[in-house]
TrEMBL record:
Top-level division of the source organism's lineage: Bacteria
Peptidase M20 dimerisation domain residues: 217-364
NCBIfam families documented for this protein: PRK09133.1
Keyword annotations: Hydrolase, Metal-binding, Protease, Signal, Zinc
Pfam families: M20_dimer (PF07687), Peptidase_M20 (PF01546)
Protein family membership: Belongs to the peptidase M20A family.
Official protein name in the record: M20/M25/M40 family metallo-hydrolase
Signal peptide range: 1-18
Length: 470
């Protein structure tokens, strides 16, 4: 078991909360703004780490009345700058606690690439700009603000509410906070249910809120290296064994191949709900795919669009290629990286076997570059969905809640692998046509941020009232 280091909580926070003054309900949006500004300014990129951000949150929560024994600020001994904070709001029982997880690290951003300083929270024309405001310091701020509000209201939940603010989701590796806590401090994050706002999606298109997802699963990340070698020689004496040609032909065969249709229970529920937002042939096709016996013609039509195709099957694509060593020499070696996103229930071995069958060339050697980390699907629980719908409709009666399987990866892979039912739920509505997470001038509208704070607060309370353990 890896060792851990304790981290100091001594960070000054110039706020009304830090001065132990009562905050009224209408001021919690401002509290959230202050916390978000502090987190953005802490610059929790990979190189610098998340310890400063974790310390800032710990001081906020400590000043709001959380006891020392309920604030656990720690990091791996060999990565002291990769700080994690685990906070517990004590309930009537510790059994079947609800665990919220949120990563503190953000993707690097350069000042010369932005119209604003990426590490200063800036408001302009109703938008809040700053690295991490949408992924996911905004959600972290909402969770911290909700804990402060519940504490100051004297709320005692039926079951403990735990929030783990963690390191290294973006970079992964041995310092990933959720993975590290589960392996080294499992008693701190023992729970009956996990909520991960980072894995949820809330969509806006043309200024209209469309849907909010309840993520129950995500595709498994896996990558291979494909390599062809030859003895080489002078370019004036070409041969048919040129490795670049051989690998190119193999990749062309792969580009024309579609993996078999694989519709999980979650995906069928997604299409059934999404159909309500569509019309015409698309609506009919989504309903036909969601039927007990999926219509293959409908599936073929939906496969023409990337958004719907990736929901229905495993996908693999080439992301890197490298070969040759001189302009006037025949190549001796050429390599390509193929990244796959595998539907839950399929395996690494099955995926590799199918790729080799399609390539149909023994000269193409396969090796695993990034092994798969299996993560089972969490059951698309009707009770959890009803709870999320109840909270969502209390704020936006017209919004559809869709069960979803995401193609991207999140920290949910660790909690699901540990046997913890995990759901990605969030209400930080983002524009489908202008998503800026990881990009230049990352931003979130100030009204959306205020609504996120209220949504997380209501979700924490509503989940506590639900018998999800039954």
């Amino acid at each position: 078991m890896a060792t851990a280091v304790g981290l100091s909580l001594a960070v000054l926070v110039p706020s009304a909360i830090a001065q132990n003054q009562t905050v009224t309900n209408k001021d919690y949006t401002q509290v959230g703004r202050e916390i978000l500004a502090e987190l953005v300014a802490s610059k929790p990129v990979h190189e610098q780490g998340s310890t400063k951000a974790a310390q800032l949150l710990a001081s906020r929560l400590r000043a709001a009345g959380f006891a020392e024994q309920d604030l656990h600020l720690l990091a791996p001994a060999d990565h002291p700058h990769k700080g994690n904070l685990v906070v517990r709001l004590r309930g009537k029982t510790s059994d079947n606690a609800t665990l919220f997880i949120g990563h503190l690290d953000v993707v690097e951003a350069k000042r010369e690439d932005w119209n604003f300083d990426p590490f200063v929270l800036t408001e302009k024309d109703g938008w809040l700009y700053g690295r991490g405001v949408i992924d996911m310091l905004g959600q972290d701020s909402a969770m911290a603000t909700s804990l402060i509000r519940l504490k100051q209201e004297g709320h005692v939940p039926q079951r403990d509410i735990i929030v783990a603010f963690t390191a290294d989701e973006e970079a992964g590796g041995e310092a990933n906070g959720v993975d590290w806590l589960l392996r080294n401090k499992p008693e701190l994050v023992k729970a009956g249910l996990v909520i991960n706002p980072d894995a949820g999606e809330a969509a806006i298109k043309n200024g209209k809120k469309l849907y909010l997802t309840m993520q129950t699963s995500e595709k498994m990340f896996l990558s291979f290296e494909l390599e062809v070698t030859d003895k080489g020689g002078h370019s004036s004496r070409p041969t048919k064994d040129n490795p670049i040609y051989r690998l190119s032909k193999a990749l062309a065969r792969l580009s024309d191949h579609a993996f078999p249709l694989h519709l999980t229970e979650t995906v069928k529920l997604y299409f059934k709900g999404r159909a309500a937002l569509e019309k015409g042939q698309v609506k009919q096709d989504m309903l036909a795919v969601a039927a007990a016996q999926a219509d293959l013609s409908a599936a073929r039509r939906l496969s023409q669009e990337v958004e719907t195709n990736i929901q229905m099957r495993t996908t693999c694509t080439v992301t890197e290629i490298n070969g040759g060593h001189a302009e006037n020499a025949l190549p001796q070696r050429v390599k390509a990286t193929m990244q796959c996103r595998v539907v839950p229930g399929e395996t690494q071995a099955q995926t590799e076997a199918l790729l080799k069958k399609v390539v149909n060339d023994p000269s193409v050697k396969f090796s695993v570059r990034t092994p798969a980390r299996p993560s089972p699907e969490s059951p698309p629980s009707a009770m959890i969905r009803q709870t999320v719908e109840s909270v969502t409709h209390s704020m936006w009666p017209e919004i559809v809640v869709l069960p979803s399987m995401t193609a991207g990866a999140s920290d949910s892979i660790y909690t699901r692998a540990a046997g913890l039912p995990t759901y990605g739920i969030d209400a930080m509505f983002d524009d489908l046509d202008d998503g800026r997470a990881h990009g230049r001038d990352e931003r979130i509208h100030k009204e959306v941020f205020a609504q996120e704070i209220e949504f997380i607060y209501r979700l924490m309370k509503k989940l506590d009232q639900s018998n999800f353990s039954k």
